[in-house]
Known about the structure:
Blueprint lengths: L15 E4 L1 H4 L8 E15 L8 E12 L2 E7 L3 E3 L9
Antiparallel strand pairs: 1-2, 1-5, 2-3, 3-4
Amino acid sequence: MKRLPIEEAKFQVGDLIKINHFGLLIVDSNSDLGIIADGPYIFKTTTHSHLVEDLFYFEYWTYDIFVDGKLIKMMPETFLQGVNIDEKDSQ
């Protein structure tokens, strides 16, 4: 059975992001800032039973990100938050 994504992706290629504490466990870096390099794409898992198909279904958006010159693949969206820079405030 084909399923549509539960939610829309929050980020796109080129977005500046900040990695939360859980994401920093995955990233070996001194920086918590990164940039979206590829994605979004959905990571999903399904647990099947012989009685009930799709008993447990998990899906979440993932991204490839650059952090401190390193490419990190499949970083879950829940570990990221957007960084908005208002250029008017910096003048």
